[in-house]
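re the bet — no i am not wrong, look at it urself. input seq straight from the record:
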Amino acid sequence: MTAARLDIRWFATDGFSIHSVETRADNDTWECQRDRHPNAHRTRLRFHEPPSGADIIEVELASVHPLEVYSTIMNAIKQRIDHLR
């Protein structure tokens, strides 16, 4: 991995979007996104499966408080880093 980015957006509607992107030496990317926002055809809370983020699964979080969400996301990122080692 040559670069990594974490984009975090919080909304006044009690929603969020957290998008992580890894870039490899060959410029290939690995992405995933976790979000919570109104959606007519899915539950509010979703996880966009890596590596492209195109496949979506519905998830649950124990809490949607920002600090709890950050903790959950950072733990998932740590697990990803440990997996790559």
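see?? The chain has one domain: 3-84. told u. also The mean pLDDT is 81. so pay up
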